[in-house]
Design brief:
Helix content is 22%, strand content 20%. The protein is α+β, with helices and mostly antiparallel strands. The chain is elongated and about 70 Å long.
Amino acid sequence: TMNIKFFNDIAPNHCLNFKKLSNSGFYDDTFIFRVIPDFIIQGGDILTRDSIKENDGQGNPGWTINQEFNNIKHKRGIISMSRGSDINSAGSQFFICLGEAPHLDGKYTVFGEVVDNLNVLDVISAIPSESEKMIKMSKKTIPENENIDNWIEYDFNGKILFFKIPNSSISKEDYREYINQRIYDYDRPSIPVKIEKIRVVNEEEINQSN
């Protein structure tokens, strides 16, 4: 669990949009689909709820909001909105900075910041990518006394790797496709990271309830 604060004064429309999406349940059970250590983690795509990873990163709420670029620096814990080439194309996808990213300053709208439990970001960023996991499953050579028919030779960026087919019910063609789908996925965490829910509440109401 992490708590965040919003910069309502400098990015009011982004804060309102995020609140609307959060409290409607839009983000519930979506997944973090992009993790780049020391840079960002990215989520907020409703399409991550399905099992089609090829469409991850393409989802939106059905509308866009105009940019509200500001002077807040992209640093560890900062929350900013993702967008396409159009500066006014932000919708629901957001990213949280894992470190300083000055090349993003003034180009993406910062609208919030994680204020506690930053260690959760470290846990997420430490998860091996799909690519890293596949490479760890490979061997440089086929071990002695192994049946070579149970192994696949795979050229990964000019480096030959060997993968053992996990069981006889999987064909070489199917397992090769399985490898193809994952070994070049450098940013997707190999362990799914689900956003259980995000809710925005009024701080004054919290203080009064306490």
